[in-house]
Write a structure and sequence with these properties.
This protein is about 0% helix and about 40% strand. The chain contains no helices and eight strands.
């Protein structure tokens, strides 16, 4: 399974709010150069937390952008092993080996402290 590109936090995008016993933070992040791997891996590309937010609890990831093709990306819903899944124009997962390195993704990352 290929690794995703290193997420970069877009400048000035940190939003913090208190929810219950913890603090929720939101960051806009981008994967420069696409998902990083040349070929798509079945079951999605693993997501790596940006270094600036390590030590926080991963809450959710929302993909805000589409690829320049008919491909859409979505978070698999897992907090312990988050991956980004690529879906084709028919909303089925892209096949293993599909070239995805031209995709650039912008996502909303939510973490708890």
């Amino acid at each position: 399974m290929g690794a995703t590109g290193t997420p970069t936090i877009l400048s000035g995008t940190r939003l913090e709010c208190t929810i219950g016993p913890g603090t929720m933070e939101e960051y806009l992040i981008t994967f420069a150069g696409g998902s990083g791997a040349t070929d798509y891996a079945t079951n999605g590309q693993p997501f790596t937390m940006p270094s600036k937010v390590k030590g926080t609890e991963f809450d959710s990831l929302q993909v805000l952008s589409r690829s320049p093709f008919t491909r859409a990306w979505q978070w698999n819903g897992s907090r312990s092993a988050p991956t980004l899944v690529a879906l084709d124009a028919f909303a089925t997962e892209e096949g293993a080996g599909t070239t995805v390195n031209t995709d650039t993704l912008t996502c909303l990352l939510r973490v708890r402290r």
